[in-house]
Here is the input.
Amino acid sequence: MNVFVSGATGLIGRHLVQLLEASGHSVIRLVRSDIRSSRERYWDTGGRRLNAGILEGCDALIHLAGEKISGIRWNEFKKDTIYDSRISSTARMAEAITRMPVPPRVFIVASATGYYGNCGSTELTESSPPGSTFLSEVCQDWEHAANPARNFTRVVHVRTGMVLTPAGGALRSLLPEFRACLGGVIGRGSQYWSWISLDDICRLYQFCIENESIVGPINGVSPQPVTNREFTRALSKVLHRPALIPLPALVARIFLGEMAEELLLSSARVLPQGAVQAGFQHRHTELTAALKDLLSRR
Here is the structure.
């Protein structure tokens, strides 16, 4: 298939492109900088309408692009950028699909487990209601922005949890602290972190492309979400380092504000019910074994 990917230079995008090409698919990267090869097409994210011609020949469209949500404390400008980078670009892509003589077979739009908000220890599936936090509202509007395309193609939303890889994301940020024995439980440690390995989330995207029965939201998480305390214990064990320095919730809120509340202290016990029922098989299901495998690679 001809697979078009936005956000192809991001953490998931880079690995996904490699996986798709190794599987025999032809990948076109949608870029916002100068075109450097025949495998790239420029797309304008700032215009009112997207030129549908850039999607000509597309069999599957994967939209991963969006402003990074971690790294710095959120202010109103940062929150507006997080929101606009997802909703407006998705809406323009969906509208462009409605004008295509031959629309793609599937339109896959990234989403996140932040959709569910802070739900404590309640088990969450794709049919669970949305939350009321900032990220929950972003995810809801993000998914709704694809509505115009639903009468023209199959639309899938991959609600992704914390992606684990030493190449980037949360795990890469935590490794220096834990290796220096400075890691520890965050807040009370009872909040659930729904995680998935980079390998599995990319395989899930490919599975969604190739499996025509998947429509709507699908949770991109492992079958075994863990609490922050369990995550801390597993990472400490794999690194053979004690986790000596806890991070009190008050300190996290003082230094990181709303970002700490929603990314570190919020609890979402999300299960991959849709993926499992569709026949997807995770390679990494248990956290300690997954960390050992991921950290053993060069």
Remarks:
- The radius of gyration is 19 Å.
